Amino acid sequence: MAKTFGSANDHTRVTRMPWDQARSPLRASHRIMDLRKLILALTLIGALVPFANTFYAGFTVQRQQLVDTTLDGNYAYANKLAGSTEDFLQSAQLQLAYTAQLLAVKMDDVARLEGEAARLRMMSKSFNSITIFDATGTVLATSPETLGLQGRVLNSEAVKAALREKRPLISEPYQSATGNFIVFINHPIVSGSGRYLGAVGGAIYLQKENILDRLLGQHFYVDGSYLFVVDRHKRIIYHPNPDRIGDVVQNNAVVERVITGESGMGQTVNSRGIKMLAGYAPVASTGWGIVAQRPEEATLAPLTQLMRSTLYKALPATLLTLILILWSARLISRPLRLLADGARKMEDPASARDIGEVKSWYFESRELKKALLIGVDAIHKSFSKLREDNATDPLTRLGNRRRMDEALANFESRAEAFSVITIDIDHFKAVNDTYGHDAGDLALQHLARCMREACRTYDIPLRVGGEEFVILLPATTLVTAAQVAERLRVTVEQMVVPTVGSLTISLGVASWPQSALEIEAVMKAADEMLYVSKRSGRNRVSAYPRETDAVY
């Protein structure tokens, strides 16, 4: 360590000559530039910052305007289509109501019923099929006749609800007897005397071409915009992609709001993970929700193109300015960077030399360099003491567990044989309980003194726990270590501690590689031998393996 500090001091002395010279402005002004002038020069270049800020602010404002405009447009679309869908449903119910009046006097004439069913389907184009059934749910007529339902009793929930409530109804989407995913709109057929005769209903096949396709499909755009309709259970009943019909929408905040009857706008993420700008509105009579949305990326594409074009036109001047900034920054920052590198390696003995070689061409870096050289010298001195303190037990001034780990690592790296003695004060808890912790601390200090006296110069005495001590003995056989342990035991037994009186210790001894091939196993073997000593009556030494005459 002395050599390292001497090296640092040498460098410090070398750099003091320019310090004396720097006191003369006339001699140093031609070589050292004041940092304030450099900052002033960089301030001129700082005109680029307002440009960048303006560019960013313009982009942000226009981006928000595009987003708000798209959200407003989608909200208006959704409201308009919700109104159109509501008008269609009311119109469809009126058509069914009118037909129901006509059928009230024809329920016994199957041919006329079939004619009315065909007329209603072909005339309005509102329904994919028409079904007329009586008060028991038995189908009397259908259009088209290919449905093959005539004479069958319908058991769907929609028909059961119609028979039960005997009023106009729009069903929840369901799977029909013919395998179609449909919405069923029906109107009761009542006789002149008020008797319920049955109902006439129209079905919209959601997975085939239907009125909703014609009503809503015209609003599908090639830029990725589209709209979809969900029922009150978040199930899709209209979508530009027919394969999605019947799917239940999950984790979509817009859908969650619209099925509760809310209308509005917001940003969301669709099922493919694409950010969308959506407007939404409910269809009041059914609880359906209509969502019109456009990809955020498509909305912002014109702005992105505009910003890119602006940037390209400003690029030449910006590049020249950037080159100048980079060159200036490098020129200014290089000495500081090298000094910082040296500061990060202050604990390295070569750091003083590296810092001394830095070419500091302006005043502030020159002064920083001098301060660092002084600091390196002080740090190297303090590091030595700090390392010693970190590896020392403050009470006994023996090495601590950190010191033990370092020593074991060194033994292992050098494959150096060693022995270990583990030591524990017998009945130490009774000492603390009887005489107090101050007396216990005094006993520990006396034991530490005995350990130092029993050790050779290169042995390593350690305190690793409350009353747990270890001695590491480099290049020492098991027999020799056991003899050292026995001498220590006798010394402690004869020692008198003020207030406490006499003490005894138990010791365990093991050796590497004689006791075990792994260092951890050697330490464990020494601990086991310590416990053997305790179980054998304490105040004794036990070594591993036992045949080394290591129990005293």
Chain-wise SSE layout:
Elements: H1 2-22, H2 25-28, H3 35-45, H4 48-103, H5 110-124, E1 129-134, E2 139-143, H6 157-165, E3 169-170, E4 174-175, E5 181-190, E6 196-205, H7 211-216, E7 226-230, E8 236-238, H8 253-258, E9 264-269, E10 275-283, E11 288-295, H9 296-344, H10 351-356, H11 363-390, H12 401-414, E12 418-425, H13 428-435, H14 437-454, E13 460-463, E14 468-474, H15 478-494, E15 496-497, E16 501-502, E17 505-512, H16 519-535, E18 541-543
Parallel strand pairs: 17-18
Antiparallel strand pairs: 1-2, 1-6, 3-5, 4-5, 5-6, 7-8, 7-11, 9-10, 10-11, 12-14, 12-17, 13-14, 15-16
Helix pairs in contact: 1-11, 4-5, 4-9, 9-11, 13-14, 14-15
**Helix fraction bin:** 40-55%
Calculate the mean pLDDT score and round it. 82
Our measurement of the CA-to-CA distance between the termini, rounded to an integer number of angstroms, reads 43 Å
Radius of gyration: 47 Å
Question: How can the largest sheet be summarized?
Answer: 6 strands, antiparallel
What is the count of β-strands? Answer: 18
Approximately what portion of the residues adopt beta-strand conformation?
15-25%
Helix count, DSSP H or I runs of 4 or more residues = 16
The outline comes out as elongated
Low-pLDDT ranges: 1-30, 547-552
Q: Find the structural class using helix and strand composition.
A: alpha+beta
Question: How would you describe the overall organization of this protein?
Answer:
By secondary structure, this protein is an alpha+beta fold. The protein has 16 helices and 18 strands. The chain has helices at residues 2-22, 25-28, 35-45, 48-103, 110-124, 157-165, 211-216, 253-258, 296-344, 351-356, 363-390, 401-414, 428-435, 437-454, 478-494, 519-535, and strands at 129-134, 139-143, 169-170, 174-175, 181-190, 196-205, 226-230, 236-238, 264-269, 275-283, 288-295, 418-425, 460-463, 468-474, 496-497, 501-502, 505-512, 541-543. Strands 1, 2, 3, 4, 5 and 6 form a six-stranded antiparallel β-sheet that branches. A five-stranded antiparallel β-sheet has the order 8-7-11-10-9. The longest helix has 56 residues, at 48-103.
